[in-house]
Fold this sequence. Notes:
244 residues; 2 helices; mainly beta; Jelly Rolls; single chain
Amino acid sequence: xxxxxxxxxxxxxxxxxxxxxxxxxxxxxxxxxxxxxxxxxxxxxxxxxxxxxxxxxxxxxxxxxxxxxxxxxxxxxxxxxxxxxxxxxxxxxxxxxxxxxxxxxxxxxxxxxxxxxxxxxxxxxxxxxxxxxxxxxxxxxxxxxxxxxxxxxxxxxxxxxxxxxxxxxxxxxxxxxxxxxxxxxxxxxxxxxxxxxxxxxxxxxxxxxxxxxxxxxxxxxxxxxxxxxxxxxxxxxxxxxxxx
Length: 244
């Protein structure tokens, strides 16, 4: 009887040990976003942490954790399998410039199913916890500046969504197109989908030229009123991420 009981205890201990080893291995296989080799840091400040992501055809990222809410802007069309830890895989077909918001606090692997590189710009919102605890004020009167398509002089602005108090818009400007005079109370991030060559006429300052290569980003401080003109010879497409 004592021998049988000892055997059972030994068996239970062995099972417990194997489970511990398994769970430890699972934890060890997960890396922080900053340690994932396909994510390349591009910019960081009090508002955002930006990564340029590139995964070769039919390759995959390591299992990595997103601790903050974020958006990603696809650079080129792609087909990706998103394997979130503890969930069934999801297939994503993404078009060039497509921008999506994703709530944070999860780990996943991104597998590139296409014959071309999977590239995107990932923008983490570092102040998301504050926004979750105390909802930020709406943009405009009763939130009327949180969605909608605006026709510009030679282009369009599509306000796609507001998340965590951050407004995300897609701009398409033809050569010579103009974004009319507008004010930025807070800073904003520009993610260039195509090459962007613009002139910024800031009130009270000389006009400046800014060139941003496709896939690059630019951080622009707030408290400015300006007009933006596409002085390039080609259409310009970019994503603006605005903070209150």
